Amino acid sequence: MSDTLALLGGSKVINFELNRYNSLGPEEVEAAKKVVESGNLSQFLGCWDPDFYGGPKVQEFEKNCREYFKVKHAITVNSWTSGLIAAIGAIGIEPGDEIIVSPWTMSASATAILHWNAIPVFADIEPNTYCIDPISIEKNISPYTKAIMAVDIFGQSANMEEINRIAKKYNLKVINDTAQAPGSLYKGKYTGTLGDIGGYSLNYHKHIHTGEGGILVTNDDELAERMQLIRNHAEAVVKDKGVTNLTNMVGYNFRLGEIECAIGIEQLKKLDSKIKSRIHAAERLRNGLKGLVGLKLPEIRPEATHVYYIFPMEIDEKVTGVGKHRIYEALVAEGVSDISLQYANLHLLPMYQKKIAYGSKGFPWTSDICKREVNYSRGICPIAEGLNDSTYLGYEMCVREFPDEHVDLVISAFQKVWNHLNLLK
After folding, report:
1. Which of 207, 277, 297, 339 has the greatest number of CB atoms lying within 10 Å of its CB?
2. Bridge partners, residue 30, by sequence
3. How many CB atoms lie within 10 A of CB 17?
4. How far apart are CA 173 and CA 167, in angstroms?
5. CA distance 81 to 83
6. What are phi and psi of 189, to 5 degrees?
7. Is the pLDDT of residue 2 over 80?
8. How far apart are CA 326 and CA 317, in angstroms?
9. Would you say 237 and 36 are in contact if contact means Cβ atoms under 8 Å apart?
């Protein structure tokens, strides 16, 4: 291997594509095959009937999720976006109500709020964990706030003890968006089970997956029923089921099929081992990078575990003398793929900057249902904005398999770049 940086004409540290992460095996193939052979790919009926709750694999997967996450109810949906929409509708949100959410998350966390003609209000994130900041949450509470969406970002829990304290103080509901952190723990309980509703993504690049899909969890009987109704054509079911609270009983086809649930049953069995593998790779990476000047490594919340959907880092240009963009170019040239310079700042998306969502006239912000002027201008979330502008460097841990020898190559590439920072200035 040449000591000259690849960016400056030397050879790469990593000259082949690392193995892509694949949690699927013969167990999933056989499970899917049996469903196909049965001819029963879905058993949902959109009316009040025993099959309103889906077929045998749907119900088996939900039972296994209840047992794993130690909750009273687990409800499968066809995507985690669908899950968020169902969760927000279930809490009885009214048009114009406000829900506080992080800007540092996938866009669906906020658009699920807009779906019900409610108003997203963005609170800043903690500088060390990148989860939503309870201090910023409380500063953003208004008379119209209905709920807090606590996004458990990158693989660990938000500060749920403090968030639940705030929610109790102001009589707010709490929804956990735990898409990226299934199986992680907060004070001995599973992340995502500490609010009124939580849940997980089964998208293809998560720890376990069914291609697309999601799992809602709650210990509240009424919220569970309402999410099941929203999942499956609520308006056609409520009369015969005897449901009298019609608030947000606008239903959809958010149903997960029998093949996906059969795969999910096998995937759930592997979650603990997959988490162990991610943690092992991340800790090896941490140990290899910890001596690099100006590179801040992930912090884990006290009494919590981290399952490393992303390995977030920060570059201090005052120390390195080199900006993150130049370092990024050098790392990519050495063969380090799956790194990024930015995550999300949702409040800066055109939808929120121009306040145009439904139609062209600014609904819901310009309508009578919006009770105050909500600010989405640059500067409202300085921690999140500063990360994207100046310091953030993220490494996607759920993209590759990461045996030790591949982790060591990534470490060698970082070390090589850091040994030549003076040439990148």
Report:
1. 207
2. none
3. 9
4. 6
5. 5
6. -115, 155
7. no
8. 11
9. no
Question: At 284, phi and psi to the nearest 5?
Answer: -65, -45
Identify the DSSP state of 17: P
Which two three-digit tokens encode residue 353?
């900057």
Q: Which residues are paired to 201 by β-bridges?
A: 214
Distances in Å between the Cα of 306 and the Cα atoms of 129, 168, 277 are 10, 26, 12
Closest CA to 322 of 287, 290, 285, 292: 292
What top-level class would CATH report for the domain 26-267? alpha beta
Cβ contact 250:73 at 8 Å: no
Give me 333's structure tokens: 């040239």
- 158-204 pLDDT, tens digit per residue, is 999 999 999 999 999 999 999 999 999 999 999 999 999 999 999 98
Calpha distance 222→191 (Å, rounded): 21
* β 98-101/295-296 pair status: unpaired
Q: How many residues does this entry show for the chain?
A: 425
Cβ 36 vs Cβ 257: under 8 Å: no
Q: What is the distance between the alpha carbons of residues 179 and 70, in angstroms, rounded to a whole number? A: 17
Residue 380 sits at the vertex; the CA angle it makes with 376 and 386, to the nearest 5 degrees, is: 120
Q: Could you give the CA distance from residue 384 to residue 378 in angstroms, rounded to a whole number?
A: 10
